[in-house]
Amino acid sequence: MNFFGEIPGYREAIEREATGRESAFLSIPEFICGVPVSALTLRHVAFISQLSLRMPTDANDLSSEELELLLWILSPDYSSRKSIARTFKRFRHTLRFSFSRFRHGRQQIGVALAVYFADAFADSPPSSGGFQVQYNSWIANHVDALSSEYSWPLEEVLSLPVKVAFQLERATAKRYNPKAILFNNSDKVRLDWLRKKNAERINN
Amino acid sequence: MAAVSNDGSVQYGSRTIQIPASTGDTFVADNVEVTRGTNVIEQTDQLGEPSGQVIVDAFVTGTAQIQMIASTDPPLLGEEFAETFVTSIGSETFIVSEVGQPETKDGEKKVNISFRKKYN
């Protein structure tokens, strides 16, 4: 039996993963329960962190206000500068969100947003575990990695979708060190298989 | 992805391995590389020109990246596993000779290992 035959669902998982990675480069419009959103960028993540907003996950249940604000930050219309146009766009966003909440419900929007964030961070770097002293912000690490490699200015790096940024950093890491340890979202299928396989061995 | 051609049913790419052999945890091994080199004894004449050589097998060594559940410990140095990398050679036993620094993410762990073939 070959490797794909041994681990059910693995082939399909890596096919899905490859499609998702390619689409990150194509600026395909994204929607969360009908509300338009931009691809998550480093700037978005910094904003969310600065506003001390919670990231949606499977485990938490965000309020309507939190979801509305997160979706506004992610909106292609988002602007931090005050203007009449911004007021109109903000109002239009609130209407879209209210309609979406009426149609899909708060929980479903929360789940869709959690999937959006999980997809965006699927290729994020691993950790060695334990506390590590930081001497600069996490943003500086990404700007340094991408700017030094591609000579991109700060603004360009901050506007880069994290799905693209993480992939480029992975490609760079592999180029410099072919044995660099990286994780794939499709690894979860293998992990489930390993859990089952090793549990069977212990039980027998 | 299937190979365009696999002459001799050579095993390649990712695979699952059990460490220690037949009693231990199952791991997924990626980027498996097995090196089957040679040692050369060269003979030259009085002018230093080549006049003969003996080529003998070198030790078989390899590297791999091992995936496991985050709560599972990486293989230990000296643990053995059995694997068939070349069908015509058959199953061989290998000894884990190096274990790198593990990295973890979302409940999984990966570590680079090196191994050497066991001869006796």
Mean pLDDT across the residues of chain A is: 89
CATH class of chain B: Mainly Beta
- Which word captures the global form of chain B? elongated
> Major sheet of chain B: size, sense and barrel closure?
7 strands, antiparallel
Mean pLDDT across the residues of chain B is 88
Percent range of helical residues of chain B? under 10%
Secondary-structure element order of chain A, N to C: HHEEHHHHHHHH
Q: What is the alpha-carbon Rg of chain B in Å?
A: 18 Å
Q: Please identify, by name, the CATH architecture of chain B.
A: Beta Barrel
Termini gap of chain A: 22 Å
- Unreliable sequence segments of chain A: none
Number of helices of chain A: 10
What count of structural domains of chain B?
1
Total beta strand runs of chain B: 7
The oligomeric state of the chains shown is heterodimer
Counting DSSP H or I runs of 4 or more residues, the number of helices of chain B is 0
Brief summary:
The complex is a heterodimer of chains A (204) and B (120). Chain A is mostly helical and 204 residues long.
Task: Give a written overview of the molecule.
- The complex is a heterodimer of chains A (204) and B (120).
- Chain A has helices spanning 3-6, 10-23, 42-50, 64-74, 84-104, 106-120, 138-150, 154-158, 162-176, 187-203; strands at residues 30-32, 35-37.
- Chain A is globular.
- The model of chain A has no long low-confidence stretch (mean pLDDT 89).
- Chain A is built from 10 helices and 2 strands, in the order ααββαααααααα.
- Chain A starts with a helix and ends with a helix.
- Chain A has a two-stranded antiparallel ribbon with strand order 1-2.
- In chain A, β1 and β2 (35-37) form a beta hairpin.
- By secondary structure, chain A is mainly α.
- In chain A, α4 (64-74) crosses α5 (84-104) and α7 packs across α9 (162-176).
- Chain A has one domain.
- Chain B is mostly beta strands and 120 residues long.
- Chain B has a single domain (15-117), classed as Elongation Factor Tu (Ef-tu), domain 3 (Beta Barrel), CATH 2.40.30.
- In chain B, strands 1, 2, 3, 4, 5, 6 and 7 form a 7-stranded antiparallel sheet that branches.
- In chain B, a hairpin with a 5-residue loop joins β2 (25-44) and β3.
- The mean pLDDT of chain B is 88.
